[in-house]
């Protein structure tokens, strides 16, 4: 059974809207793929059940809730040092 993909806040929707149109389709495709494979090859664990997915120059920070089968998207941002700050505050 696939996982449900949810966003943690309206802030994530704004971040996704700020992604260029050319990159947005690729980011959305990779986000939707998390429903079938929440821990894809190339993903990286950042903290307990918190992962990073590289999608071109963007990074997607998300948390997996296995019992509820939910992938909660906490951030979509260009790669930068501040992208990884305050991870637990995202969820």
What does the model show?
24% of the residues lie in helices and 34% in strands. The chain is an alpha+beta fold. The protein has a single domain (4-84), classed as 2-Layer Sandwich (YaeB-like fold), CATH 3.30.2310.20.
Beta-strand percentage? 25-35%
Task: State the major sheet.
Answer: 5 strands, mixed
Per DSSP E runs of 2 or more residues, the count of β-strands stands at: 5
Q: What is the fourth-level CATH superfamily?
A: RelE-like
Class by SSE composition: alpha+beta
The total of helices stands at 2
The mean pLDDT is 91
Describe the structure in brief.
A hairpin with a 2-residue loop joins strand 3 (50-55) and strand 4 (58-65). The chain has 91 residues and is α+β, with helices and mostly antiparallel strands.
Give the tags.
single chain, 91 residues, alpha+beta, YaeB-like fold, five-stranded mixed β-sheet, 2 helices, 5 strands
Break the fold down into its secondary structure elements and pairings.
Layout lengths: L3 E4 L2 H9 L2 H13 L10 E4 L2 E6 L2 E8 L4 E9 L13
Parallel strand pairs: 1-5
Antiparallel strand pairs: 2-3, 3-4, 4-5
